[in-house]
Amino acid sequence: MLRIKRVYDPQEPDDGLRFLVDRLWPRGVKKETLQMDGWLKDIAPSDELRHWFGHDPAKWKDFCRRYHAELEANREAWLQLLGLAAHQEVTLFYSAHDREHNQAEALRLFLEKRMTAGL
Questions:
Q1: Mind listing the pLDDT tens digit for each residue in 42-96?
Q2: pTM above 0.90, yes or no
Q3: By the 8 A CB rule, do 1 and 84 touch?
Q4: Cβ atoms of 106 and 31 closer than 8 Å
Q5: Most buried of the four, 2, 74, 86, 104, by CB within 10 Å?
């Protein structure tokens, strides 16, 4: 199962495996204090796409379409994560303020669609 959470939210026992899915390290967070199982920079949207989106909710659908196309072209970045999520709880961390329109949510939607379709 996949869940998303802001990097600033407290850790919970049911988080399972914890992965940061931002390309940039979150502001104000010390690397030694963030308990996580990995930092998946390569799974994050490209800098170009991230800058274009700018967390503008009006661009959300187009952002998801573009980001999902980037993910399709970078299968090795998410395939192992998909396998982990099929067997255990996985929490994807992000630093954006918007809890509904962020790359972790777009990634979760992408991965859940692949799990439902059998990859």
A1: 999 999 999 999 999 999 999 999 999 999 999 999 999 999 999 999 999 999 9
A2: yes
A3: no
A4: no
A5: 104
